[in-house]
Amino acid sequence: MRERTNKPVLYIVIPCYNEEKVLPVTGPVFLQELDDLIQAERISDDSRILFVDDGSKDHTWQLISNFAKDNKHFIGISQSRNRGHQSAVLAGLMEALTKCDISISIDCDGQDDVHAMEDMISEYENGCEVVYGVRDNRDTDTRFKRFTAEGFYRILKWMGADVVFNHADYRLLSGRVLQELAEFKEVNLYLRGMIPLIGFKSTSVYYKRRERAAGISHYPLSKMLSLAFDGITSLSVKPLRMIGGIGLCVALLSFIGVVWSVLRFFGGNTVTGWASMTSLICFLGGVQLIGLGVLGEYIGKIYMEVKARPRYLIEKRTFP
Ligand code: UDP
Ligand code: MG
Predict the structure, then answer these.
(1) What residue ranges of the chain have pLDDT lower than 50?
(2) Which of 45, 145, 202, 246 sits in a 20 to 30 Å window from 98, CA-based?
(3) 10-236+310-317 is classed in which CATH architecture?
(4) Reported pTM
């Protein structure tokens, strides 16, 4: 393991997917921040900005290659195809693992304030191994996104998964934590949930999240829902337990129904209702299908884990 040095080597890991519009704007911003940190002697000159092209279909890779040609502080790797944000971040972190003392992952769209890195590094200097970037407020999000995101964090907490409220994937990890992260072999990736499981001394720094500098979000509602669902099922088995709970409630209700119908029978009032029968059948059918769906989701996850396919595949690098 690398020693904790005064001037640590920092790797800023930046996932990029079809970001040709935003990279020319944010690339120089990242470089300025890195230069400032180097000038202030807070980090070593061996620090790098590591772009991870997540199989973009536009000119993102050309832009990254050009950055790398122009300035030694820029480097890039490219996934062999689009594998998603989490996979891209992990690929970058694992690439950085052997080369850096600290990593900071951040989105490439300029929404996260790069100056928060200074506070993150201060916290690292104070002995923290994990520093979460937490946004102060969600003013720049639509009301819908704010509502769904906050609801989601609450559900996750309730399900027993320890996630940091309003923290996305902007975070500092020390080399030590990266090493432990490498031991987490799961292919169902949800880094926000995995990092708290690693433990170590951690803290949060706060920043204001802005609008995207350019381009469009790659997280439409469908992707957001699928990430949310992945988050829950990767971190918690509570939904499985809930099926048992729902089954128990339904069974109790049915028992009351049976007692009720027997009493009606002895009361001589046995005209059976079609409506109540049909609704019961539909209701029970629905409950069973939901139960099966949740079970299926977990079985699907087990299937993916058992195959243990690589979680990322790097095709190209801008360096040897
Ligand atoms: N991203 C990625 N692969 C994908 C989708 C997104 O690497 O399949 C990157 C994207 O380039 C950006 C970050 O993940 O740097 C967050 O994406 P985005 O800004 O579109 O999401 P939002 O901030 O709107 O939730
Ligand atoms: Mg964004």
Answers:
(1) 1
(2) 202
(3) Alpha-Beta Complex (3.90)
(4) 0.80
